[in-house]
Amino acid sequence: MKKKISLLLIAAFAMFAADAAVPHPIVLPDIDGYKTLKGDMHIHTVFSDGTVWPTTRVEEAVMEGLDVIAITDHVDTRLQKYTNKGLFRCDRNESYRIAAAAGKAADVLVIHGGEISRGMPPGHWNALFIDDNDAIAAAAEKYDDNHVKAMRAGLKEARRQGAFTVWNHPHWERQAQNETRWYDEHTHLYDEGYMHGIEIYNGFCGYSPEAHRWAIDHGCALISGTDTHKPLFLNIDYANGMHRPVTLIFAKERTLEGVREALDSRRTAVLADEHVYGSEELIGELFSALFEVSDIKYSEKKVTFKVVNRSSVPLFLSKAPGSEQVVFPRDMIVRPFECMTMTIYGLDNKKPIGLDSFDVNFYVNNFLTEPDKPLVHSIHFAFP
Amino acid sequence: MKKKISLLLIAAFAMFAADAAVPHPIVLPDIDGYKTLKGDMHIHTVFSDGTVWPTTRVEEAVMEGLDVIAITDHVDTRLQKYTNKGLFRCDRNESYRIAAAAGKAADVLVIHGGEISRGMPPGHWNALFIDDNDAIAAAAEKYDDNHVKAMRAGLKEARRQGAFTVWNHPHWERQAQNETRWYDEHTHLYDEGYMHGIEIYNGFCGYSPEAHRWAIDHGCALISGTDTHKPLFLNIDYANGMHRPVTLIFAKERTLEGVREALDSRRTAVLADEHVYGSEELIGELFSALFEVSDIKYSEKKVTFKVVNRSSVPLFLSKAPGSEQVVFPRDMIVRPFECMTMTIYGLDNKKPIGLDSFDVNFYVNNFLTEPDKPLVHSIHFAFP
Amino acid sequence: MKKKISLLLIAAFAMFAADAAVPHPIVLPDIDGYKTLKGDMHIHTVFSDGTVWPTTRVEEAVMEGLDVIAITDHVDTRLQKYTNKGLFRCDRNESYRIAAAAGKAADVLVIHGGEISRGMPPGHWNALFIDDNDAIAAAAEKYDDNHVKAMRAGLKEARRQGAFTVWNHPHWERQAQNETRWYDEHTHLYDEGYMHGIEIYNGFCGYSPEAHRWAIDHGCALISGTDTHKPLFLNIDYANGMHRPVTLIFAKERTLEGVREALDSRRTAVLADEHVYGSEELIGELFSALFEVSDIKYSEKKVTFKVVNRSSVPLFLSKAPGSEQVVFPRDMIVRPFECMTMTIYGLDNKKPIGLDSFDVNFYVNNFLTEPDKPLVHSIHFAFP
Amino acid sequence: MKKKISLLLIAAFAMFAADAAVPHPIVLPDIDGYKTLKGDMHIHTVFSDGTVWPTTRVEEAVMEGLDVIAITDHVDTRLQKYTNKGLFRCDRNESYRIAAAAGKAADVLVIHGGEISRGMPPGHWNALFIDDNDAIAAAAEKYDDNHVKAMRAGLKEARRQGAFTVWNHPHWERQAQNETRWYDEHTHLYDEGYMHGIEIYNGFCGYSPEAHRWAIDHGCALISGTDTHKPLFLNIDYANGMHRPVTLIFAKERTLEGVREALDSRRTAVLADEHVYGSEELIGELFSALFEVSDIKYSEKKVTFKVVNRSSVPLFLSKAPGSEQVVFPRDMIVRPFECMTMTIYGLDNKKPIGLDSFDVNFYVNNFLTEPDKPLVHSIHFAFP
Predict the structure, then answer these.
(1) What is d(CA D209, CA B377) in angstroms, rounded to the nearest whole number?
(2) pTM for the model
(3) Are A332 and C23 an interchain contact pair (Cβ–Cβ within 8 Å)?
(4) Could you say which of 3.40.50.620, 2.60.40.3090, 2.40.128.270, 3.75.10.10 is the CATH number of the domain covering C292-382?
């Protein structure tokens, strides 16, 4: 009898012995000719005003299946609070160095970056693929009371180092209280060749249709950054299937060089809060790769087929013009990894379809090729 | 040593011994003077063409914390497949009887209903609070080839029984392929006093702005129904925090009489796919009850306060006109049960607020008082 | 401005347009020479005393990634309640026929089965791979007051049809109140060649160490069945990562013939409530296939390596004898799909390991080769 | 038509605007006369070798509903890496000060603590309710090569400050490779009055039956600590309902004084990995408070009643001696917040119960009053 009791006893096991978390991966297929890399281009650590050690940023990247992260600590601030008081001495590249070492072990690419923060205009800018944040800080600090001159000097030094530079969160309410503005200074910085990318989605400010429009019109890369300061879990509701926003980078190879080439070639898109923003070409190919149609069966009264969503992104579909002769759901959700059977009927439900071929056209309402303009996807059916 | 091993052994326990599931409750506060009841007004079982026994519908209601469900089996179909072949004999009220007995034990109110399904116009209609589906079916069946006459006869018999009748899914693609239409017959049925409610959200067809508009313009109750045929879990992604759509019924008491009085008085709203649809008065009060503001702290440079979302509904907020003099996030999500601290700044981030009092106005983008018209909520602040 | 508001509006989409649920797959690798099929060998539907239509059982199987299910409705009961009153007429193979048609469309193998339920002894038995439940019921019903004779007759008829027969839940408290007993009748049925398998885990009764022991000692297949009557979601907490219990079938091919051959060859194991029960050979191979070790790095003071759990089953590990010269966690959990880095030290934390080679031995506490006896797994390390 | 499209557009909202995460609360009722406080008594930050800023520890506490946390940074280590090189200057109480300020704003009690880490014996010890870690470090550092003398000196200084001192993780594999040992030095420290508590569960090492036994035999408080160094989310699988281990403190009031009084009076228990460890009196009362029985219905053939689990802890129950005359499930799980109906039968399923009164006795297999000894709970039934 004693034996029976002991059999039923359950031991409490050590929960922390492992070094990493259960994965919550962001899943997307590659597209023709390119790998679909997932990156976070805007990240802080305890070395500026963030609240986690740089190694944590790599562990978080592993958890969500990211390929690349940029460490973009402010070239000012927190440990700097101690620094300012002379309590801490360390250069501005330490967080990158620590993250890069951890990234190497965990197979996460780490971009050396930094954020230059000034009043508006010009606001905040990220410099990616740099060598030395101390030199950038030094260049900018010469003009402490002049935001414009400070930023120009910082960006100039960043360019000297070969940086890819990004205008961050043009829509941040602290610098764009009631509307998102493009100032003359932005024309200047664009004309000078500094505006390689624009952050159209930022963790704190969300999506900006204005920034999206500007990026398209100026040929800038679409960039997303969490701008995360805290552990991501305190902001992202993973338990309910949410994910951090990411920049999608369509790269020829999964290396830092591959990332840089893709950024320079503007092959990026943004996935944020269940939305994808990008050019019709890129996100159209992405949608085609993740939305799998199979098992088409034709009969006189209906056509059935299977659909699988090969991604962690839910798809919000609705009927688009050009399919008026056939009947299918006017709106529907295809959830992550969902496999379902769809049916196409002829008009009035009872009539035979009576067509040799037809198109099923639908809006993918959460894939936006421009502000307010959803991707249209078509499936062509031809009776055998 | 043997003892130590046995200590670490974990036994596999029986998972099915219990009679009900872990709860996934839909949580909403009551409003002033009324209880906020959650109901599903459109439900099928195996007794028509559904795939679950009526008791399951009560267990599902318990799992999500519903107060009331309507059993609305078609007054035709599945076991009827057997019936038609003479293999099954049972009246059309059996599913209600079985559900009502289970509801009594589980404290879930069960409405005796039925669905009359015909071609468009008039389409499908639900009769709630009826006595006998056999009589309704018999009345309608007299006009088998005439949808209009059949429905009129069915609704007339339902009225004789004291029914509350609802036009179901005017936007169902099988009957409204490319647009949602109001036919002359609907004017007739409305004029005859049959259109007490309109289903503006249906599990299969989603939300219809047209139906929403018609319900407002004709003084009909806003109704939502899952129209569920399968076990709900096969359609609702509970593991990621989703819930079934529900009709919110603001009732004086939690009884069938209370539900009927609220329906007759048009005190309903719809909660579906994280959206709430209803009159400014009702959903405004609901929002005020669930959005709790506390701990306001005034200083010269900023005002901080706590916000708690006392519901299972995420809130999608964005800045609305009338608060241009102060700075706060231009858009944000307050997730279910989230507690957060918000900060209001003066303009340009560094200036003191410099106002004796001000309003924080925001759109609640997922609370719609009309199609395309979000609720506006204000918080008034006055420096002490 | 109006445009901006409408942009922020979010529409509620149809949640039920799809035909199947978001997957919650049970994931296990194949082993050398065999596919690891997942099956549920004990399932009821509305055609006996269950509460769902047979098609639902196939949809649930798809959701969890099952390969095979057995429809084992009682050869008596619910629609039978109607049947007994003469209200329903249909043979006892209808639920199988409906499920088999749905299984064909969804690529789920469906076994034609039935459950013969009598008092103890002999209790309840499942007959799998039969042709006609009516004949089995008829054979058993001749001896209505004699459980022993009724079961013998039923099993005899099942054998005539070529059945694989299983003693269900020997530990069901309604028939084994305070202890699990093997009666003389079970010796008789075993000797007569009827006891091909024993249900060592049942959804309602959990795991039985006695049944496990008897199955081992008598060379019977280890079988698990949910014995599910309701929709599975009402019993299984999928939102917290739980799964239904399954019989693991190591088959040469994914066909009904392959399943039968594996059952006949006793190549089965049981996965239930995060435990795996099976022979050392089979579950040892399964563990080796799912527990991936890579990236071993040797240094004087420590050895590090990566571990990945390639399954949806958490692993509860603790140090076993034979590794006293090296230091590693005395107990730990490796969660589903978790990837982690482990470190082995020499004794006393600071000493070099000082060994040419060594073994890391650990108990897999939730993989049981016998009652109370966990699997032992070894990783061999040899300094280069 | 354009309008309709824009209606369906969904905007991506800002996910980071909020200051705290969706709650994953640990829920337990109070017991008679005491509040059930949840505490984590062992926590590191970036100020020693942790990877998060002290404020994060308060945010994590809020997320799980903890009442009290102890900041117990090593009185050596990480920023100390910089410190040792003369790069960082700051006293050893800075992490407490930062956490305490955040705790005050968030209503989380923060204990000033520190960890003294030495070789075994004596191993690692926590000092709680201290004033100055610098003085403790200084006292210990005098004996850098002598673990015993260093610890004695550190604990002596901690006592001078009024500390409550705890022996941490006696079973840590790095200091207790193959068995958990009590050294003579522990007898000495116990005799000197330093061993107020023993950590019987530690995040990295799990549960120690030896430590549990020693704590009981020596009248020490049962203590649990995560020993967390990283953000908790990287170790705890919240998405699947897991929680961090906590010390349960049965306090007269929710203040630091109340916590200290409860520790001094040994009114603690441990909740870790779904297990509760504590005295029969305390965890018996806790179980009675969370396991609610209602709606008892007596009939001749069966007794039914409702059971609700008013906690976030699953309950693993199995039949215990003393209830042989009645039939109920021999083992079962009652999941967090689950509400279920149970049925008691007479023997042999068909007989009337035939008793005036009876007890339902069961083991609560995951509530352990001693190592290997589960709590027994009884429900008394008396026919009216």
Answers:
(1) 56
(2) 0.94
(3) no
(4) 2.60.40.3090
